[in-house]
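Summary of Year 1 activities. Much of the first year was spent building the evaluation harness for sequence design. The harness presents a backbone, in tokenized form, and records the residue chosen at every position. We chose the following record to illustrate the format because it has been used consistently in internal testing since the harness was completed.
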């Protein structure tokens, strides 16, 4: 299961997930990691010291494919499993 690390700015999204709602989050992926982020896949969502399992419920949306560090920013809609 691929980990998805949330930033401090994503505290509301994580609380929504904990409450059972879906949430849109942005993640940075490198290399072939993007292949693991497909609709229907389960990911481990991490925020600070908390984590929960979430299912990707929509096709990932590419936000930025040319970051300075070589990563790509992808938007995911995730719901708690």
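For this record, the design step produced the sequence shown next.
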């Amino acid at each position: 299961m691929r980990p998805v690390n949330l930033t401090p700015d994503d505290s509301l999204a994580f609380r929504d997930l904990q409450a059972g709602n879906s949430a849109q989050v942005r993640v940075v992926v490198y290399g072939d990691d993007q292949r693991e982020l497909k609709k229907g896949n389960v990911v481990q969502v991490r925020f600070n010291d908390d984590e929960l399992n979430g299912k990707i419920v929509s096709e990932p949306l590419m936000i930025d494919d040319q970051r300075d560090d070589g990563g790509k920013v992808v938007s995911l809609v995730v719901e708690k499993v």
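The chain has one helix and six strands. Quantitative recovery figures across the full test set are reported in Table 2.
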